[in-house]
Specification:
The chain is α+β, with helices and mostly antiparallel strands and 186 residues long. It contains four helices and eight strands; from the N terminus they run αβββαββαβαββ.
């Protein structure tokens, strides 16, 4: 907040003008018993008013999913380097903007189990219109197993019944991906 106070002084108190700029807001997160810094892209609009007051508007930019590769880029950042199986969901609003990214389960070297109830509870909690699921194969092989195909069908059918469609299932492995939607399986 001190940085914002400094910006207020720099804008000038005698003129009415609007300044818009993008900043990265550092956010600390624990990872592997150490502190890593994550950044959120935000747009800050500051309007300097003649009386020395400032109006401040902060807009957090959201990611938009337009294709399977966009979803892969998000999942790659989240799970590509994991040495164990992780299962994530990306919750989307009605315009396919990302609402939230949530880890649903974490497994071992040979896979992770996921419960569809957990996925739809999160969708309802965050009022998601649709979602994309993704998990990694620590081996790097991106071909879906029979278990992958069964859970995809089960989650897709459940989403159809609840009117919360699953848009895609992405399998991530060493900088490459398999999309059920692109391959025509979904």
């Amino acid at each position: 907040m001190n940085r914002l106070k400094n910006y207020r002084r720099e804008i000038g108190v005698y003129f009415r003008k609007v300044l818009t700029f993008d900043v990265y807001r550092p956010r600390k997160a624990k990872k592997n018993n150490g502190i890593t810094e994550k950044r959120d892209l935000m747009t800050i609009n500051i309007t300097a008013l003649g009386n020395g007051m400032c109006e401040l508007e902060i807009i957090k930019k959201r990611e938009k999913i337009t294709c399977s590769h966009d979803a892969f880029e998000i999942f790659k950042y989240l799970i590509c380097d994991a040495y164990h199986g992780e299962f994530w969901i990306i919750l989307l609003n009605s315009t396919n903007m990302v609402i939230k990214k949530i880890k649903v389960s974490e497994g071992g070297l040979h896979g992770s189990t996921v419960n569809p109830v957990t996925i739809f509870k999160r969708c309802l909690d965050y009022k998601a219109s649709s979602f994309i699921i993704g998990h990694n194969h620590p081996s790097g092989c991106i071909q879906p197993s029979e278990a992958d195909k069964k859970i995809t069908k089960k989650i897709k059918d459940s989403g159809f019944m609840l009117d919360i469609p699953m848009l895609d299932h992405i399998i991530v492995g060493h900088d490459k991906y398999y999309s059920f939607k692109e391959e025509g399986v979904l």
